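ESCALATION

Customer reports they have been waiting on this structure for their group meeting. Please prioritize. Original submission:
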Amino acid sequence: MKPDGRFLKQPKSFWANVRTISQHLGYVVRKTQQIKVYTIEDMRRALTELELNPDAVGTPKKPTKLGGMLNDYFQLRSDLIHGEVEPNLMEAAEAKKMFERLRKKLEPTCPLPMNKQKGKKKAPAYLTGMVNMLISDNAEGMGCDYDPHELTTVTRDGAPLRTLARRVDGAFPSAVNPVAVWEIKEYYYTTTFGSRVADGVYESLLDGLELEELREEEGIDVKHYLMIDARYTWWDCGRSYLCRIVDMLHMGYVDEVLVGKEVAARLPALVADWVKEEKRRSLDK
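Update from on-call: job pushed to the front of the queue and completed.
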């Protein structure tokens, strides 16, 4: 899932409106389970109830530029979640089949870690394994840190320039001066949407904020990806967090979000881009 360019350059105040209106009106229509698309009238009601200025979004007959952009965004958010996210989400059985097909086809030598479950739920971490296999198969022999045990650091002239606050799930080609970093949130055997899942979203937001600062202050662009799967967790329990993920994508804190089955279709092209960038960097040294 890629961002829509119309919304990538919106000011922080636009996203303040998105969050304020969304949290007040709720993200999902309970009866239909559809992602809400707020009308100008809805937005005016929310702002009025919050004792804010409803005229900022205009009226149904004469919306302001802000009101029109907000309505367009809320429609896009709903369309993306229903049209791209939901069809690509898998449960454990489907993810296992996809994982086994890729393992048989690619015969990987990269790490294929197990999940953290116990007993009958103990199994390979399917999404992580698929991501690792697809990166390894398309990396043209370049290294990759599939499980960094150190903080991501960007250097200049041999000295640390920025070090991220937390460890990411993967970095290409390494956690020092990476071209790309990613987070993987797979919850195939989770039976509720708990705080651990919600924290995963905010961890990616923190990484994105730090990488934005690096890009704006130092002119260094490290690509940042979020990869998620587990239909029950994200679709049945966590649709409001899918909205937050789409918001994060369009705020520029994540370059792309890969959902379930999408990793097989999209990762090879992304890795090819990372390889080209790493080769370019090597020539510049």
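Sent to customer with the following note: The chain has nine helices and eight strands.
Escalation resolved.
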